[in-house]
Specification:
With 141 residues, the chain is of the alpha/beta class. The chain contains seven helices and seven strands; from the N terminus they run βααββαβββααααβ. β5 and β6 form a beta hairpin. α4 packs across α6 and α4 packs across α7. It holds the Pfam family PHD_like.
């Protein structure tokens, strides 16, 4: 797991402004402190990594006219009186789940059935609001 661009934490700290400028305007860099390595990406780099992390919603109409369905990738279910209401419900739940995941990161990330959610969570978290989640993260199936 050796990558070009890994520098010592001391070197990054000594010229932190230049390090940040390099990450934001040039390329990702890693920092190593003892045995720990972390990678630093600009928002543009992050978007490139996760832009394909969209979810597909599957939905059906019940006998009473209610729309119900789920997001397979995140184990989220929802319902609504219309398809748009259902999508609204799913997007709100996705945003709330992403915030809960982030706030309880250690618990979720280290859980075997939730670790795979991480790239989707990041894509949801960088969206400005629920409307952006509906447009940029949800693909209707």
């Amino acid at each position: 797991m050796i990558m070009q661009g890994i520098i010592s934490a001391s070197k990054a700290r000594a010229d932190f402004s230049r390090f940040i400028d390099s990450v934001v305007h040039e390329k990702p860099h890693g920092i190593q402190r003892h045995r720990d390595v972390m990678f630093n990406f600009s928002l543009e780099h992050l978007l490139s990594l996760i832009d394909d992390k969209v979810v597909t919603v599957d939905y059906h109409k019940d006998n009473d006219g209610t729309i119900y369905g789920s997001v397979k990738e995140l184990d989220i279910t929802g319902y609504g009186d219309t398809v748009d209401d259902f999508i609204d419900d799913i997007a709100i739940q996705m945003k709330e789940y992403a915030e809960d995941y982030y706030n309880n990161f250690t618990r979720y990330f280290h859980s075997t059935n939730r670790k795979s959610h991480f790239p989707y969570i990041m894509n949801i978290l960088i969206q400005d609001d629920v409307e952006a989640v509906k447009v940029n993260v949800i693909k209707r199936g």
